[in-house]
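Write out this protein's structure.
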Amino acid sequence: RLKVCNDDGTSTYVSEKGQQEVQFTDGGWCIQRPTANIRNAEGSLVKPEGLLKFWLDCPSGAKKRDAEIFAGTRIFFTTGVWDDPPG
């Protein structure tokens, strides 16, 4: 479970109409880890990155210029994650 930190789930952003409110509700997440090592450019075996995937629901919707999140939209995110980054 992914928890929205604000008690009421409200965040703000600034648009051409001034400060606007947008609401998010709790979502979910998972980490997908590869099962096999891969060879890097030097030929050494390394652990490939995993994927952190998560989502939030936006019941209120939001609009800024030509970008719009419609009310009731589920927003998906993906980013790389590593267990043991070098350095």
